[in-house]
Amino acid sequence: MSDYQMGLPTRDAYGDEILALGHDNPLVYVVDCDVGKSCKTIPFLQELPEQYLNVGISEQNACGIAAGLATCGKIPFVTTYAVFGSMRMLEQIRQEICYPHLNVKIACSHGGLTPANDGASHQGIEDMGILRTIPNMNVIMGADYWSTRRLVRAAAEFDGAVYLRFTRDGVPSIYYESAEFTIGKANLLKDGNDVALIANGDVLIVALEAAEQLEKEGIHARVLDMHTIKPLDKEAVLAAIRDCGSIVTIEDHTIINGLGSAVSEVIAEEGRGRLVRIGINDQFGESAPYHRLLEKNGITANHAVAAAKRLLNGEKR
Amino acid sequence: MAEQIGVAELKQKAIKVRKNILKMIYTAQSGHPGGSLSAADMMTALYFHELNVDPTNPGWDDRDRFILSKGHVCPVLYTCLGMRGYFEEKELLTLRKEGSILQGHPDMKRCPGIDISTGSLGQGLSVGVGMAIRAKRDGMSYRVFVLIGDGESQEGQIWEAVQAAAKYELDNLTILVDNNNLQNDNCCDVVMPTGDLAKKFDAFGCAVQKIDGHDMDQILSALAQARMQQEGKPNCIVMSTLKGRGVSFMENVVKWHGVAPNESEYAQAIKEVEAGLQ
What we know:
The complex is a heterodimer.
Chain A: E1 6-9, H1 10-24, E2 28-32, H2 36-39, H3 42-47, E3 52-54, H4 59-71, E4 75-81, H5 82-88, H6 90-98, E5 105-109, H7 127-132, E6 137-141, H8 145-157, E7 161-165, E8 170-172, E9 187-190, E10 195-199, H9 204-216, E11 221-225, E12 228-230, H10 234-243, E13 246-254, H11 259-270, E14 274-280, H12 290-296, H13 301-312
Chain B: H1 7-28, H2 33-38, H3 40-50, E1 65-68, H4 74-84, H5 124-137, E2 144-149, H6 156-167, E3 173-179, H7 188-191, H8 197-203, E4 207-212, H9 216-228, E5 235-240, H10 263-274
Parallel strand pairs in B: 1-2, 2-3, 3-5, 4-5
Helix pairs in contact in B: 1-3, 1-4, 1-10, 3-4, 3-9, 5-6
């Protein structure tokens, strides 16, 4: 790994930012589902008990309670793991939050393969794609500590439903504290006109490392942090098609319906551009070291470099 | 209470509520008459006696909240809202029509007076718990009423919500169970027996009352008792009701869960409701 220092898990960023938000705005509530310790909301409970609920292991109920609070002007953050926050309470999100357009945030740790040792049951690999299909929902994943803090605050300030995904384990620090984020607007981390690497979350680092390798070979890669997959920054994708033509997407998510699919929709409708999607290959994970799980799915800098070169050489995947 | 009107007048209102339900569903040729009619007496009592609401200011923050968790029986809610003046009564005949504020299931974004959109069973009670917790936390005196069906109580989420209502000592919440013993496919006892719902809600920590859901005196008395109860227990009123109540050929007949009457059935139904068939 290059110059990037290992930082805190992004669930810690959530815990720190939600605490700050709760102090700033008494309308901000946390609705926990007995995973407060894992999702870093215990300081919020200790300092702001009147803005905190723990409804136990009942995610569907948590979602409804949050909807009820939101009808009264509160800004609840339902806090759980990605698997449960996207699937156990999916229809409640649809019916009681998105359809009535309520201001509820679904804040989920353990996104993607990051709860590596926990195995497949706890690895939320389909979540962002599933949430992306629901009208009025916005879907976001920060890449590191500071980006996640900024995006959690942006979500709180946005009036509407937002799904936020965090990592269980530590991720390299990419951004400084001063970084700025806008929901729905990709961050350009490195410019280049040969190939575009579009990534988000814990595997944004893979794109940055791949770009470094390509640079050494004289290939100038553009790196975009597509932290919001809905609404997708279509302009940034169109610019990548126009300027680079070749695009590699990298995500810690099944390649079906996530970031890669969202980008491919733009490419297909545009009728221009070529794409390789790197992500989880339509298979469940297992208990294994995180890096092994990424390797088994080809979510590595080497794989991304090879994909970029294949695209540049005009080879089929 | 918005209006203090007597039992005799409430009974008259309930007749008009039933007639409107039938007229709406007949006009739409679509909708759910059975469960609308079984809930009609309680709904009349709520909207013309119990609820502290202001139809000219539906978003008033201190208002009592009402959630129709069994959202498919919205004709009974729509007619109460229309009769209370949330919108013009002539709107009732637009039920289920394109562009109507009266969607097939309640939509809070389109229809004034709807406190939460419902239609997917099992979900409304959790929302009511959220509203009731907010009242407690913010020191507000409004109360929350949630009407659920007995078939609906087959949904596990109902019991998650009751559990939370007990934890947070929501004596400002009243769960109304329309125990009409029928559901979409058949009798509840055949499809999935719900058992003794009063005992179940009691075991979950509620202050439970069992009443005849078509006896206006019992309804008012139960609502008054729920209003007085301040022991930190969620209220639950289990109403023994008849699906299709007031129309002889609809009463306790599974078919009338979600079927509209034809012309002659409609005429007969209106005649029976007007006669106040017991």
